[in-house]
């Protein structure tokens, strides 16, 4: 477990545009972080047509706004850790799931589908005292300098909690499921 370093200020998200993620400009191992699940049409149809000059910050806000519009008054916090991470995306959206794991899953897959390399981060917050308490967030690739920007899809402005501790980076929650099934999560 490692303390999450502050990679960059979130203000950079106001500068990065979708056009900065052209596939031919992505270098090295970055493309491996683009594998995405199918996004249910109820969300994808609202998100897929984005202006290439849109900033990542505005895109994140658009995803959140559309998702919450679909949810209406539904807010399902998930029944368990496994429910939060391993429920299929269509069911997450249908149930209105807002737990950190489900929101990271939804946001991460939408970002990838739009061509933005994204890592799934599994960890916890220092203030969480129960043995099974966990938290999750994402890292988004910064094509301007080749670093990764941490965002919390459950944070008010996508900001990271200062007490976030990283356990492991995953391509998706199915990789986490292997560790979970072994009790090593």
What this model shows, in words?
A hairpin with a 4-residue loop joins strand 3 and strand 4 (147-151). 32% of the residues lie in helices and 16% in strands. It has one domain (2-181): C8orf32 fold. A 5-stranded antiparallel β-sheet has the order 1-5-2-3-4, with helices on one face. It has 6 helices and 5 strands. The protein is an alpha+beta fold. The protein has helices at residues 41-47, 56-71, 81-86, 89-95, 100-113, 173-181; strands spanning 2-3, 118-125, 135-142, 147-151, 164-170.
Q: In a few lines, what is going on in this structure?
A:
This protein is an alpha+beta fold and 185 residues long. It contains six helices and five strands.
Q: Into which percent range does the helicity of residues fall? A: 25-40%
Report the end-to-end length measured between terminal Cα atoms.
11 Å
Q: Give the beta-strand count.
A: 5
Strand order of the largest sheet: 1-5-2-3-4
Please state the overall shape, judged from the principal axes of the Cα atoms.
globular
Under CATH, the topology is which?
A: C8orf32 fold
Assembly type: single chain
- The sequence of SSEs as H and E is EHHHHHEEEEH
CATH class group: Alpha Beta
Strand content bin: 15-25%
* Major sheet details: 5 strands, antiparallel
Q: Rounded to an integer, what's the Rg over CA atoms? A: 16 Å
Poorly predicted spans = none
How many alpha or pi helices? 6
Class by helix and strand content?
alpha+beta
CATH architecture: Roll
Please tell me the overall pLDDT: 91
Total number of distinct structural domains: 1
């Amino acid at each position: 477990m490692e303390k999450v370093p502050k990679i960059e200020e979130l203000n950079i998200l106001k500068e990065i545009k979708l056009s900065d993620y052209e596939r031919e400009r992505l270098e090295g191992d970055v493309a491996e972080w683009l594998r995405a699940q199918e996004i249910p049409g109820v969300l994808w149809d609202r998100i897929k047509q984005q202006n290439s000059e849109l900033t990542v910050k505005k895109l994140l806000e658009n995803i959140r706004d559309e998702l919450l519009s679909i949810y209406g008054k539904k807010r399902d916090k998930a029944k368990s850790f496994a429910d939060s991470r391993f429920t299929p995306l269509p069911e997450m959206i249908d149930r209105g799931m807002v737990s950190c794991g489900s929101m990271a899953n939804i946001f991460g897959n939408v970002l990838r589908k739009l061509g933005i390399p994204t890592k799934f981060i599994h960890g916890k917050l220092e203030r969480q005292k129960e043995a099974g308490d966990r938290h999750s967030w994402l890292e988004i690739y910064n094509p301007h300098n080749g670093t990764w920007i941490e965002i919390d899809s459950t944070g008010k402005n996508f900001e990271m909690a200062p007490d976030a501790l990283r356990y492991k980076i995953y391509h998706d929650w199915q990789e986490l499921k292997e560790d979970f099934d072994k009790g090593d999560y």
